[in-house]
Amino acid sequence: MQNLNLVHLSYLTLCALSDGVIIANSKGQVLFLNKVAERLTGWDIERAKGKFLKDVFIVYHEDGQTRYMPSLVVGLQQMDLPDYLVFRNQAGHIQCYITGTVTHFTDEEIMFSGFVLLFHDVSYLKQRESQIQYDFFHDTLTGLFNRAFFDVEVERLSGERMLPLSVIIADANGLKLVNDVFGHHEGDKLLQKIAKVLRSACRHEDIIARTGGDEFIILLPQVNREEAQAIVDRISRSCNEVEVSPIPLSVSVGTATRENKEDSINSIIELAEERMYTAKLRENSMVRDEMSKFIRKTLETHAGETA
Asked: 3-state secondary structure string, 109-139?
């Protein structure tokens, strides 16, 4: 009677666990699933009994594409599952991330050998880790990549197969003026508008980073100088078409192209930066006059509305 009570208590414990539990015999055939395992695998215990573990515990590596099967090795005491295995639902979408252990056990008294697979949902940890990684590599204000990510990508794109590699450096005109006259919240809006323009002008695979207060750098793999200039032209047109206040949208742009592996990426970036500053000096007087007129008009309009 006491042994029976212990067996019943063990069964209730397995059912009450917040982790998923699957028990299989030495051949890998499922004998038991608790409720959590039923929910995560999509198999109820009656349908799963006698099925092979590979047909019930269907998980993938973190990439969501490569199938993973735990090794059922007799004599293996315990093996950790990889972090962030993926359960996919019937539509093929990621349902949750899990990790856990698989343990071989033997009960000589009842002459039984089998495996216990213990796993739990770690989707929250995965989401948190992804958010930390996103924050580390992105500019909070614009959502663009930041300097840290840009530096990593410079190394990645240094290979010959990325040639020609073009670089565009864009510098926001009038940001200090806007911050001083209208406040930093308006300056932030200006930067966000510029980020939107840069995104719309570039391809998905291009690297757009905010690397300074008013400076943006774009890396364009396998883009020649003519194609890069076409992107610069799109940026200029988009700035002219965007209706923003308190000042017109304006950026000074410089571009350069790495066409052979002998040229370093850093030298190309420096050349693009020189050309950007040359453009800024050339345009500075005209841009400043235009912005001053626009600011005066905006302030006069605002004064008239509040009079």
From this structure: CCCEEEEEEEEEECHHHHHHHHHHHHHHHEC
